[in-house]
Hints:
- By secondary structure, the chain is mainly alpha-helical.
- Helix content is 44%, strand content 6%.
- It holds the Pfam family peroxidase.
Amino acid sequence: xxxxxxxxxxxxxxxxxxxxxxxxNNISNKTISSNNYPKEECINDDIGATIILSFGFYxxxxxxxxxIIFSWVEKAVSDDPRMAAxxxxxxxxxxxxNGCDASVLLDDTPDFVGEKTAAPNANSxxxxxxxxxxxxxxxYVCPQTVSCADILAIAARDSVVLTGGPGWEVEMxxxxxLSGSKSAANNNIPGPxxxxxxxxxxxxxxxxxxxxxxxxxxxxxxxKARCSTFISRINGTxxxxxxxxxxxxxxxxxxxxxxxxxxxxxxxxxxxxxHMTPATFDNQYYVNLISGEGLLGSDQVLxxxxxxxxxxxxxxxxxxxxxxxxxxxxxxxxxxSIVQKGDGEIRRNCRAVNQVQL
Length: 358
């Protein structure tokens, strides 16, 4: 009874939330559909199909969807605060491989090698069990209605909100892929030691701008990284991205003590991406960069001077958290609408395509 009352209250809240966003967006230059929600067309050039993302997509078919997702994410983050960053990262790694289509969730089979074993993901991505729980609950309430790709997008938003960050209305209507690509995951997802030109190129490949890149990098204001992802920065390797004169040597020494202690293991020992406010979504990440305390090389290069504009954006976000929040919301919505490649479906189980599920 308690759960039903909670879901009813949450549904009412989200209905009001969606209506408010619809009113705001009605004055924008987006196309207004017959149900009064702005829609953005994502055209799949491979097969000529069109996927239309819209606000309030499940209000008629599964109004409980967003409350159910929020309740599971809230529980997961309460049990493990690091899970917020993990769920946000799942959405990133999904969208950077053939679009936001939940391909990252597919398990390997005897006939298929997916993205979970790709270098950026193996022994690193977390949160699959949370997505499983959400999907099982949704399948009970609204069978084969809510896509796993939409679950990832909503869970990412909710993770940000639950850790003190901004909220935004998520456009929905994504389909789940019928396959995945380990090679695309290896090639497309930015690496932790990428230099600035490489980072910019990877973001621009998906229609994301330099400003989008800097704003989305702010997701590293929470979460952790293994020593193995930044060990080249602290072991004296020459020419490593992010090891310029702006680096805080005391900070690097503290990382050396963490990663090179007799008890540590480079594959399992973790460091906070934001050592000041590690479990809060705020703008401290940018303050850290200016102080030379970016954990990953790909973080610190944003102020290295390779592209002067990036440092200016970092400084602006460090000075004004509201500016960061606004740009982060916009960039997340833009990333969430990256064109999906290939045909799609609504999976019953996020780990496998429907045709191979028992």
